[in-house]
Amino acid sequence: MTADPITLELYRHRFASIADEMGVSLQRTAYSPNIKERLDFSCAVFDADGRMVAQAAHIPVHLGAMPDSVAAALSAVSTWQAGDLVILNDPFAGGTHLPDITMVSPVFLEGETPDFFVASRAHHADVGGMTPGSLPLSTELYQEGLIIPPLKLYEGGVLNEAVLRLILRNVRTPDERRGDLAAQRAAHLTGERRLRELAATHGREEVLAYAQHLQTYSERRTRAALRTWPAGRYTFEDVIEHVEDGRLHLLPIRVAVTIAGETITFDFTGTAPQMRGSLNAVLSITKSACAYVVRCLVGDDVPMNAGCFAPLHVHAPEGTLVNARPPAAVAGGNVETSQRIVDVVLGALAQALPDRIPAASQGTMNNVTIGGIAPDGTPFAYYETLAGGMGAAPTADGLTAVHTHMTNTRNTPVEALERAYPFRVVRYAIRRGSGGRGFYHGGDGLIREYELLTEATITLLTERRVRAPWGLQGGEDGAPGVNRLVHPDGREERLPPKCSRHVQAGSRLCIETPGGGGWGTPEDV
């Protein structure tokens, strides 16, 4: 079937709207504030071969890595039937880190083989492990929580009760997990229903044909965009802040980006070896970060699907921070190392496209987990990533107090937090002046201060506390972030970028997030 341009555009939005509606279903039926309020989830539609057809505008680090999860599910299951649903979170089998639980289910339009797959990935606020929130200061994967290989949670529409009991027995907040898992399945049922309705209206043959046409179109448009970029090899280096035995170590991430005609290659040779800590990233994350940068530069009018990935090649040496071997700890690689991969790729491309690349944004997700037993005797586990400053662009100031790059979540409302957890937010403000000066100024970070109403364990995975977000083209760096703990007796403690503490009721945790870098020489210089 030959593609008609108008029909192609219609199908682009039809498939994307299905992924969007899946997300709405997931949000409205979820239990945890992390999913319901922060929207820390992603949904997408795949063809019968596991190639992405469409995605919703959700979390970049989820969506770029989700094809590997679908591939893992397809490899693990030899026979599919209607009502099947595969669950997984193993980072070394298509996942990213253990709190991100992925589900994959088939969609049958006719016959006995799937015509599509729908998938969702949601960050669950606790999946067990050393500390509440499942983002511990771990040294191997087994300390981070329950590991789920690709297996069927539902078979033919029937729940595997034993698997569900096993999952819920290994988490601190089983009722919340049960609700969030059910919400993901509800999203899949929505996606399956809408795809069948689409085929019933327009015919199976046309729907399948345009799923392929969209991928071909996106690949053609991506290759055409790459041909306009200056050919050459561009290099850049930045660091990850690792704390071990009380000492700070700056671990390099290096990239060489080669633009050659209609292809682009990212080579991470020279990056630090995988480390004894949780900042290791699996290959799925590295590929996702590279794809995200290219996607931003190609333009919003190109549909995001498997075709966009075809001209991209990633070489990440095995056993390094950007392609760790099992059983490496990876909890922080998904949330922090992914941000630094974006930074180094943007830094390299700034040499090729100086009028298009922004200065560094905050470069961290400022991961905060707080957990323990509430005064009423029930366990709680809070997780949030905090916004910061966006790097200034060649044409505009950076935005203030927003999530950037590999995260795309909301700022959780104070009211939602205080209703769900035993703490108060005593300060929530913009961190004025933290953005770097420039012809265009970097965006400011924010300040969030919690007062704990019960004893709890807090764990921080943060970056850019030592090495500031860099400016470009003469712009100044943004301010590094600051982590502080004020004890009940008033004693103040400056916390390192990564730490875990058991604290008493009345303690206050204050996080000041980094500002973005400035772009261009300040006018008053």
TrEMBL record:
Listed GO biological process terms: glutathione metabolic process
Ranges of residues in domain Hydantoinase B/oxoprolinase: 4-522
GO cellular component: cytosol
Pfam families xref list: Hydantoinase_B
InterPro entries reported in the protein's UniProt record: Hydantoinase_B, Oxoprolinase-like
Gene Ontology MF annotations: 5-oxoprolinase (ATP-hydrolyzing) activity
The protein's name: 5-oxoprolinase
Top-level taxonomy: Bacteria, Bacillati, Chloroflexota, Ardenticatenia, Ardenticatenales
